[in-house]
Amino acid sequence: MFERIEQKKNLLDQKRPLPVHTVKSIRESILLEWTYNSNAIEGNTLTLSETKVVLEGITVGGKTMKEHLEATNHKEAILYVEDIVHNKETFSEWQIKNIHQIILKGIDEQNAGIYRKENVLISGAMHIPPDFMLVPDQMGKLLKWYHEEGQSLHVIQRAAILHIVFVKIHPFVDGNGRTARMLLNLELMKHGYPPLIIKKEERLQYYNALDKAHTTEDYNDFYQLVSEALVRSLDVYLKLIK
């Protein structure tokens, strides 16, 4: 299923260590694109160029403080994920809550990093998340699956399933999508893959693939979406280091 991606990753690995300035420029570009697209999927109206200046510390007129914080928080969450990877930390529930806390910092302090204490619906989806009382137990089962059965899977499949099941549980009142995409990339980055970016234009395809996975347990559409996004990221590196 992932042979094409493995071939591209092997080509990239053969070129390591990569030129310092190339890595720096790609990282800055991915950080911006990831922040812009992940927030845009959730309804943030900052454009790509507006997101860039916000991340540089400039206020954009006509945009809400929440939208500014969503951008700066997302960048901070990426830096935290990079630290986890750099320090080779074991995946934990603590990390999940920390990522979420950063994403909602200054936006919803009451719920940042805290599992929901109420029931919710996912707008436009057929799947209904579990009762809030079941969230801690289901998150525990997700972590157990990750550390046991999940380790026998290909890393891309494991990362995709982690995202799918996390969103199915919908453990937080808000910020689940951004957190899920952080967890997806955290798992990939830990194994030497570049972070992938699900684009704003793929929003409907992304939501449909998730809902299909949640209601029919057919994960293939989501695997395909993730694979295509990962190929795009690998191609960015390969194009610049030829």
TrEMBL record:
Pfam families: Fic (PF02661). The record marks 42 as: Important for autoinhibition of adenylyltransferase activity. Signal peptide: none annotated. SUPFAM superfamilies: Fic-like (SSF140931). GO terms for molecular function: ATP binding. The active site is at residue 170. ATP binds at residues 174-181, 206-207. Residues 91-228 form the Fido domain. Keywords: ATP-binding, Nucleotide-binding. This is Cell filamentation protein Fic. The lineage of its organism: Bacteria, Bacillati, Bacillota, Desulfuribacillia, Desulfuribacillales.
